[in-house]
Amino acid sequence: MGGGGREHAxxxxxxxxxxxxDIFCAPGNPGTAELGTNLPIDADDLDRLADAADMHGIDxxxxxxxVPLARGLADRLRAEGRAVFGPSAAAAQIEASKAFAKxxxxxxxxxxxxxxTFQELDAALAYVEAHAEPLVVKASGLAAGKGAVVCATRGExxxxxxxxxxxRAFGDAGATVVIxxxxxxxxxxxxxxTDGRDFELLPVSQDxxxxxxxxxxxxxxxxxxxxxxxxxxxxVLERARREVLAPALDEMRRRQTPFSGVLYAGLMVDAAGxxxxxEFNCRLGDPETQVVLPLLAGGLTDALWAVAHDKGVxxxxxxxxxxxxxxxxxxxxxxxxxxxxxxxHIPAALPPGVTVFHAGTTRGADxxxxxxxxxxxxxxxxxxxxxxxxxxxxxxxxxxxxxxxIYRRDIGWREARRLPx
Length: 421
What we know:
By secondary structure, this protein is an alpha+beta fold.
């Protein structure tokens, strides 16, 4: 379910492991159409999706985006006897409500930033006025990955609060806001495939949220990612398992909202190696999926199948000694008002280890590929070294042409800085 780069990467990984399988994607995109059959059904049209699962005899449904999960798609399909990889609506609250997630973390003793939750504008502004700088203002609900505003000053925070609570810039998603202290460190994305008790980690990655190089410009859904990440050491990941993931799953079971699917923990790792939770998500990340799945050697299908059929968690094999870098190509005007319709030209021959995942594209009756969304394409390169993966991703991004193309040439800049001269 879904039509972005994450779903193209999922279809690509599933096809690689299952060359003879029937794969359907709803609604899909021109990239998924090359790997299976697209169904013209929106990912949040629960009735039509359920009908399609029956019509095509689907054995396993994998839900990509968070919105249909929060609306209860997994519940609906399970009630009809379908195997689904993805959490219930009750469990998806861990992403759909940041206030709920903060409550879970507080109850479980999980390291996270100090915070307060508000629904009244005046009370929120009074709290901001007394809060140390910098601080972070978050829309509690789903805001397409753009609802967290890092504010250097109380004035910026007050403006963000007014936009959310006063002007409803994020609609109902911003009717409740979470205001929290600013965490210092380096952020990593940890994705755990889980049955609600046990879990298996996918390769760790680092996302780049800001639109422009040097981590400047407006916040976006993600402009690129890389994996592995040097700061994600074995001790850090062991602490993440022990202090974050296991306690979160325990607390979700205690609340009778067990979590089954991918639990995404966005972690800030401080100088002492402590992983602090920035956010939880209820699904695979985007663009993290596009950078992580190409690093797998096998076992993804079996792992998702086992969780969906209540058969526990099975191991997933990684490709040791390789690195992956994904560069996002966005449309002019992204993230606020992306321009659509630009004709896209992708080189016929791509460098070794490079895959182009479609995100916001469409192909008309004339066969021409055009931009149809904010994030248009994801260029993923896998290579024996980080430097080589970074170079191949960047150079392929440069070679792809469409009017108004925006992308960052510095994806993985922190990792590059750590490399010896």
